[in-house]
From TrEMBL:
Domain of life: Eukaryota
UniProt name for this protein: Uncharacterized protein
Length: 200
């Protein structure tokens, strides 16, 4: 479970998906905001769009950009079912005792991961719905800021309207998710990858 929560690890399944996504935007230009150029948290227009794009891609240039939004997009496709995890811990505690350090440690790890996951999911909703999607329509008598097709940018994972739940059955969640993705590739490949964009 700890390895699953360590999304910054270059061997994490999310990172392996991230490096396959196009490195450049496909539906808009970045203009002067090339890699490494800091974009203000109060940015608007193209600067805001580039800032959001970086975060949805899972990259950031400074402490104010949150690379975990890319992980949050991936996480929506690999949503460990809360009731199943809690039932597993209850069963473990019943078999080994409620004060046994192993179930207690695992439950603490889960609670920490789940709290972070919920925080990321809330921030992702805010950034996608409040900033990106409303920027693509006329909203509150304000003209749209971005092109209508911008939310469909193929260089980051798309926002799934529903989470795709899975029930962990092994202690090694990373290996299990890797197997799941091999059997059900739509968890990650809603958009083309670099290899599928190459000419034959």
């Amino acid at each position: 479970m700890a390895a699953f929560a360590d999304w910054a690890n270059p061997h994490h399944p999310w990172q392996l998906v991230r490096v396959k996504l196009p490195a450049e935007t496909c539906t808009f230009g970045v203009g002067e905001f090339t890699k490494g150029v800091t974009v203000s948290v109060r940015a608007t227009g193209q600067a805001l769009l580039v800032r959001l794009w970086r975060q949805f891609q899972g990259t950031s240039t400074d402490a104010t950009e949150k690379a975990d939004l890319g992980f949050a997009l991936w996480e929506r496709r690999h949503w460990a079912k809360v009731s199943a995890v809690e039932a597993y811990f209850d069963d473990l505690a019943a078999r080994h005792g409620r004060r046994n350090p192993t179930p207690l440690k695992l439950r603490r790890l889960w609670q920490e991961y789940n709290r972070g996951r919920n925080y990321r999911a809330d921030r992702l909703r805010q950034q996608r719905m409040k900033r990106l999607w409303t920027g693509c329509i006329e909203y509150n008598r304000e003209p749209r800021l971005f092109h209508t097709e911008t939310p469909l940018e193929p260089s980051y994972l798309q926002y799934s309207f529903e989470v795709l739940e899975w029930t962990p059955r092994k202690s090694d969640w990373v290996a299990e998710v890797t197997e799941l993705d091999a059997r059900q590739p739509w968890h990650n490949y809603w958009t083309p990858t670099k290899t599928s964009l190459k000419a034959p």
